[in-house]
């Protein structure tokens, strides 16, 4: 805090350029926020609007016929609660494991004199551009006996090559002087990794953490492939997909009865539709993960001063 | 035991390899910490990423999942032939390249621009809010995003209303019905959805820049734009180059969801890309072989572009990827 | 100081996370162990056996059948229940991985991957099992057993729906040309027979009412989005007096299947669209709107007419039915090209042999017997009544003539999804052995086809229109379907990746690309656009497709008629 004050103290001499720049920039940002926020306001409005009414479209910022039914429909499933636990677990565990492993390899291949620097980098990078295909991967997971386990969510993704390269380039960007002085003090690689690189790379670690966490949180395809018949390992995204499909069934049942003429108001009030469930899903699934960002932000909004470490 | 001496006698004429080997072993023991840090993960990599490559053989078979490897029927390049001789393949390839290049250029420019602009916000609270909000659309599924895009561009959507109010159009324009506009629409949609997300990494890069540089520049009287040009952008340079090289490797990946969802009979000649083509003629026909063949083709192209981009970057004096 | 704190914090955090991982792994292990024990116990006791049922059609909740009222009853009778897993993603992918690994759930309904399952030898032949253990199943499917046999003479699948006598559904559930009731009312209840009649009505009303509720009137809209495009290409077939055989017309005498996409009838349909487009009657957005936008448009009440299948627009129709203005609802007409064509919109009695459920090779001999006995139980007529109608006094009543009906309260009750799930309708109505048509006592197999149920459900406005057109039920406007033993031709199993299947996709792609151009061309360019399309179309291998379909049609015909 004191640092910021100090900095803005320097900025007291605001030039005309500053004023113009800031006003343009701020207005642009406000506009940007409106454009970026709109879909969520819209989806929230649809999610609290009566499903039968939503079919007509034309809901933008506010619901027309307010209801919590769509949320009730989603949360009436006991499996949703269970799935949230697994989703959180795989996000936390997956992120922690991946961060640690990725950072370690990144550190190694960032060392200028590491004997396998180039070859290790290349064999990692190559895997970004090919995959053996669905079936061989499936058979591998089966042979490793990962199917039906929690670890099938974690092990295949312990290192993301993209993240690895990003981390490497950040570590390479750290001033060499720090390493040299540490070496003179007799620090080994592990000491340097834990005591210098990790703390100094917090911005990139936060970034990669976010990438991995979002990836883990949003995954549903591996649940579909490997654990679809194991209800204890289902994730939120997968359950929501299921509920979305279910809303179709619900829809046609209600529609069929309404078509037979009995579609009274009371009946349609309980109705859900794919559109409204999709909106509800968007809110339910994205709000928790969006909340992660502000917590990580403090690691790179401020910017850091290497001087503080020295 | 006389053998050791014989051996040593025999090996004396070739002392070079031994010293090389010794040197190697010495280096290994010097760098055992680094080896310890990488070897387990290289093994992991080989198991999880390289072992499944045997699946590439499928591209040369009429793969039937029920048969064992030895029972598969080998068909040579049949699936590649199907892919490359299909009348529409050239068009599909063109669409893929066009869309991924637009995404590449737009994606980079907008994300870097946004990161720089966000960095220029002095008010911490506002900065955080902007950052969080700007990355939110990334969490929309394409189904939702595409339907919002579609509504926005429809005859009574907001764009047409603005055009009508400004008197720029006599009658509503069906943007999604004009094939030529599809790439642009897709690029805009991708940007809207992902610019905030893509900017995160540049923000991280900016935050690694030593703040003292800014303060020194300020004292030297550098203007805002000068500081951006001479401190912020160079500070992101290595990350930009690395990301650019990696993304050039993805030249044939332009995604399929938005194309599939925003595609319609009127723009299909511009919206259909390789992935959509492969889904239609591969996966949905239970033809895993065709999908694999397309995958191999993409990989080959990726490698060519990747290596070219990498050596170009190195020639330009940048670090390069490897 | 600051730096040390950070480092310590970082390290502590990492260790904390790693500890969590450690703990988690333990927790997971016990979890997995707990599970295996559970299932061990279950199979140990031979009272009730649980089988797995993978349903590739979905949608639905994953449950054990015994959690429903019907399922519990069946379990008590047979000692068998099922864990149902519904597909969530792509069927081909899921089935592909199953086949590759050779491990299957006990019972699989593979939907479009069915032929792949059979090719892979994943299903066991049911012929002997049915013969020996399933007399009721044999009775229910009696007339169709021959058709259920695959190339090698084995029965691998039990399909869903063995027709037992024809009954016309009271309400239109298939394709038709729809007109808004307001239009009909204002114009004195006209009854359009031909396509020209139909559009003349829309046009006249459109001229008089350019705006509805302040918004521009839309004369005629169409659904063309994604795989639903057939709603735009199929009308030609219906207008020419054929039922929905998919992409072909089947000659009633020679039983040759021919594509009609490049034929005169398709041209005539497109020309009409081209004509109404020039008049401004055709919705400009027809080719750009997605499914949701299409439904929203119909639900908005400003569309005068459209062609579609009821099940595609049911959401919008439902919205209108509950929306408060009954005149915004639509009425369906069997429109044809010329007066002398007899309409064939109604589905003839049909037998769809695939998909169906099959028992997989992952089961033991003993298990197969148990499963087939369960299916046999389901196939009993009184059990079918339970599945379709429910329980007397609870979900239906019987009058003094033995006719089944539902009270308005019961209709309300069975429409509630929650009730349907708890009772089991939602799980047993489809994807299990089932009949169609009429029961031996004359009641409709499906309640929705029982005229008594429909009549009770008609409201005032429904009756106004029934009277105006002198109908008892709405389908009285439609002609009775003629006998077409092969129907539906689109059910023909087409080998995955074969030239015929590739043709289907190519033809579909080409139509999607060309039809908008043809339809929206200025009338003087129509011929040129159409000819360009025909040229391209004829380059495709349609002959192969016709051959495959003709063979199948003929085979099916012989199976039915040859007996």
From TrEMBL, chain A:
<feature type="transmembrane region" description="Helical">
    <location>
        <begin position="277"/>
        <end position="296"/>
    </location>
</feature>
<comment type="similarity">
    <text>Belongs to the binding-protein-dependent transport system permease family.</text>
</comment>
<feature type="transmembrane region" description="Helical">
    <location>
        <begin position="192"/>
        <end position="217"/>
    </location>
</feature>
<keyword id="KW-0813">Transport</keyword>
<feature type="transmembrane region" description="Helical">
    <location>
        <begin position="120"/>
        <end position="139"/>
    </location>
</feature>
<feature type="transmembrane region" description="Helical">
    <location>
        <begin position="84"/>
        <end position="108"/>
    </location>
</feature>
<feature type="transmembrane region" description="Helical">
    <location>
        <begin position="151"/>
        <end position="171"/>
    </location>
</feature>
<keyword id="KW-1003">Cell membrane</keyword>
<dbReference type="InterPro" id="IPR000515">
    <property type="entry name" value="MetI-like"/>
</dbReference>
<dbReference type="GO" id="GO:0005886">
    <property type="term" value="C:plasma membrane"/>
</dbReference>
<dbReference type="GO" id="GO:0055085">
    <property type="term" value="P:transmembrane transport"/>
</dbReference>
<feature type="domain" description="ABC transmembrane type-1">
    <location>
        <begin position="84"/>
        <end position="293"/>
    </location>
</feature>
<protein>
    <submittedName>
        <fullName>Carbohydrate ABC transporter permease</fullName>
    </submittedName>
</protein>
<keyword id="KW-1133">Transmembrane helix</keyword>
<keyword id="KW-0812">Transmembrane</keyword>
<keyword id="KW-0472">Membrane</keyword>
<dbReference type="InterPro" id="IPR035906">
    <property type="entry name" value="MetI-like_sf"/>
</dbReference>
<feature type="transmembrane region" description="Helical">
    <location>
        <begin position="20"/>
        <end position="41"/>
    </location>
</feature>
<dbReference type="Pfam" id="PF00528">
    <property type="entry name" value="BPD_transp_1"/>
</dbReference>
From TrEMBL, chain C:
<keyword id="KW-0732">Signal</keyword>
<feature type="signal peptide">
    <location>
        <begin position="1"/>
        <end position="27"/>
    </location>
</feature>
<protein>
    <submittedName>
        <fullName>ABC transporter substrate-binding protein</fullName>
    </submittedName>
</protein>
<dbReference type="InterPro" id="IPR050490">
    <property type="entry name" value="Bact_solute-bd_prot1"/>
</dbReference>
